[in-house]
Amino acid sequence: MRFRQTLPLGDRHLIGRLESFGDIVVGFSMSQLALQLEIPRTAGEVFAHSLRYIVFFVAFGVVSGFWFRFHRIMSTGFAPRRIDVILLFAFLAFVALTPYALVTYSRMRGNDALAPQGVLLYLAVILGVIGFSWLLTLRGMRRAWGYLDAQQRRDTWRAFIAGVAAIPGFTIALVSIGVNGTQAFPVFLAVIPLVLIARRLFRRPWPLVVGPHAGLAPGTLAPAEVS
Hints:
This protein is an all-alpha fold and 227 residues long. Helices cover 70% and strands 2% of the residues.
């Protein structure tokens, strides 16, 4: 938040409005999940389709995670520049599509096997969320690194590295499933260990990535080594 105080009053006001808009988008997405649950016609149908309840809670957790990522983006180095606002709206658009993609993914079955179209839609939406989130994280990190405390720097860097590993992994999974069908689905599962390994290998920030303020003491414009 210290970086936000350096912005003009009009920019700070706009950021607040964008935060409210993002909360509305996430809240609307969560309400759509409940609407996907069909009202049972008989008492016997209440628990007849337990998979739908599982999908609901999984999707709710996924969207909640995206809201937390949205909060982190807005509270670190976000500035309402034109490109950042465009990236933010694109990120929120894919967040809004997430409930639809998850429900479609769970229902598109043929001969008890997942249809490739449902898997591709799901992965494409998740890739969109991660991709635009990563771009916003990169721009915010470069813009406000010198104003972040140690915990914020660690969390922001880990989010950046996770994107570096996850984006190529999801892209390969999309291409593999598109070419080979759902038998290539394990390629998607390999993204998780790939992200964990990347976080362990690249713990120290790269000066070229974090930007020209990497050597500044948090919250100041003086070099870190100057007392």
